[in-house]
Sequence to fold (312 residues):
Amino acid sequence: MRETMEKLQDQYTSALRNSIVGMGESALQQAYELGRRALADGLGVLDMAAMYHKALAAGLPRDSTPEETALMLEAGASFFAESLSPFEMTHRGFRDSNIALRHLNQTLEQEIKRIAHALHDEAAQLLASVYLALDEVAGNLPPAREHLLKVKGLLDLIEGQLRHLSHELRPTILDDWGLLPALKFLAEGVTARTGLFIKVEGESAPSLSPLLATTLYRIVQEALTNVTRHAKATQVKVTIQHELQTLRCSIKDNGVGFDVSSLSARTGERGLGLIGIRERLNSLGGSPSLVSTPGHGTELVITIPYTNSQEA
Ligand SMILES: Nc1ncnc2c1ncn2[C@@H]1O[C@H](COP(=O)(O)OP(=O)(O)OP(=O)(O)O)[C@@H](O)[C@H]1O
Ligand SMILES: [Mg+2]
Fold:
C-alpha cells in the first residue's frame, strides 16, 4: 500500500507539473486517470488533498513572478478538481443507490403487508371452513366427538400462532402504539416459538418517523432470527436509547458468539441478514457495529442520526 502510494505520488507530482506548465487537456486526462487509480487503490479524498499539496510544493518553480504563480495555481486547481471527479462520481452513485434502496424497501414493505393480510384473512377463512366441517363430522359421528374436540383445540393454537405471525410480519401495533410496544410484541412471539427469554427495554419516541420505526423493527426482527438460528442463547436483551441526536439500539445475546472477522472472508455461502441490516441503515445515514467473541455472546449495536422533525 505504501509503495503504491509513493508511486502514485510520483506520477501525480509529475502530471501536476505538466499541468501547471500549460499541458492543458492531456494533463487533465492524466489527472482523471490518477484519481480513478487512487480510488481503486482505496485512497480517500483526504489522501488526495495531501497528495496535491505535496505535488504542489514540489512542482511550483521558485523563481516565478506573482502573476505566473497565480496562473500556475489556477491550472493546479483545475488539475486537482479533475483528479477528484472519480470520487465525486462514486459519491453520486452511492446517493443514487441509496435512493433506489429506499424505494426497494418501500416496495418490500408493501409486499410484506400483502402477505400478512393474506395470512391473516385467508388462513382464518380456511380455518373457519375446517371448523364447520368438523362440526358436521361430529354431528354425524357422535363417538368421534371427543377426538374432534382435541383437533379443534389444536386448530385454535394454529389460529393463534397464525394471527400472531401475521401481526409480527406487518405490525399495525407499530403504527398505533410505536416501536417499543411493537418490539415487545415481536419478542413475545419469538419467546412463544423458541423458549428464548427476551427483555425489551428503553423509552418510546412518539415522533419517530414511520420509516425509521419500520427500519428498526425489521433490524431487530433479523437480529432475533439470527440469535434463534445461530447463537444457542438462552437470553437476549434489546435496548433502545435516544441520545441527543442519535438513536441507539442494541441486541445482545448470551450465546456461543462467533468470529466477526471471518465473515468478510466467507464467499459463496454468505448470508444476507447482516448485509441487509447494513444496507437498510446506509439509506438512513446509520451504521451497525457487531461485537462478538466465540464463547462470549454477540452484541449488535445500531446507531441512526435522529431529529424530532424526521420525515418518512
Ligand atoms: N447472534 C449471533 N450469534 C452467533 N452467530 C451469529 C449471530 N448473528 C450472526 N451470526 C453469524 O453471522 C453469520 C451471518 O449472519 P447473516 O444474518 O448475515 O446470515 P445468515 O443468518 O447465515 O443467513 P440469512 O440471514 O441470509 O438467512 C451467520 O451465519 C452466523 O454465523
Ligand atoms: Mg440471518
